[in-house]
């Protein structure tokens, strides 16, 4: 019974719930980024590169024989995966850069200076009176 009580306390803590929400939102955001890259960014790049697809590049180490499959080193799939990663990383970088620029604009909006406190007003008057005395 003690273990169930401890598990319940653990499961309903704010940190666990926050983490679960973060994972769910992260998975949904991952789908958005994947769609952005696959449907918006990659087609123009593929068009500019002439439809280059590295995934077909491979070296056959051992041919298929007697029902045994061939042993193939598919280095092209690795190159294509690295290329796709670079595109995803660049797209995320540009999105984060844009978000940060928007945040900076909000932060740069000058706030109205606070009104001087009564003590500051009094000190200013004293300073001005001392200046006039000289």
UniProtKB/TrEMBL annotation:
Membrane topology classification: Multi-pass membrane protein
Entry keyword set: Cell membrane, Ion channel, Ion transport, Membrane, Transmembrane, Transmembrane helix, Transport
Transmembrane segments: 20-38, 78-96
Pfam families listed in its UniProt record: MscL
InterPro entries registered for this protein in UniProt: Mechanosensitive_channel_CS, MS_channel, MSC/AndL, MscL_channel
Superkingdom field: Bacteria
Signal peptide: none
Cell compartment(s), UniProt: Cell membrane
GO molecular function: mechanosensitive monoatomic ion channel activity
Gene Ontology CC entries for this record: plasma membrane
Positions in coiled-coil regions: none
Similarity comment: family membership: Belongs to the MscL family.
Subunit structure: Homopentamer.
UniProt function note: Channel that opens in response to stretch forces in the membrane lipid bilayer. May participate in the regulation of osmotic pressure changes within the cell.
PANTHER family reported for this sequence: LARGE-CONDUCTANCE MECHANOSENSITIVE CHANNEL, MECHANOSENSITIVE CHANNEL MSCL
Entry protein name: Large-conductance mechanosensitive channel
Organism: Desulfoprunum benzoelyticum
């Amino acid at each position: 019974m003690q273990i169930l009580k401890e598990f319940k306390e653990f499961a309903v803590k704010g940190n666990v719930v926050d983490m679960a929400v973060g994972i769910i939102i992260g998975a949904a955001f991952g789908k958005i980024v994947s769609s952005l890259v696959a449907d918006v960014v990659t087609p123009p790049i593929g068009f500019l590169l002439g439809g280059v697809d590295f995934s077909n590049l491979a070296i056959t180490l051992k041919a298929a024989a007697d029902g045994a499959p061939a042993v193939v080193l598919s280095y092209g799939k690795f190159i294509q995966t690295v290329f796709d990663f670079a595109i995803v990383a660049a797209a995320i970088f540009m999105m984060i850069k844009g978000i940060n620029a928007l945040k900076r604009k909000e932060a740069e909006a000058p706030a109205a200076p606070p009104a001087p406190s009564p003590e500051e007003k009094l000190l200013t008057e004293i300073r001005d009176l001392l200046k006039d005395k000289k």
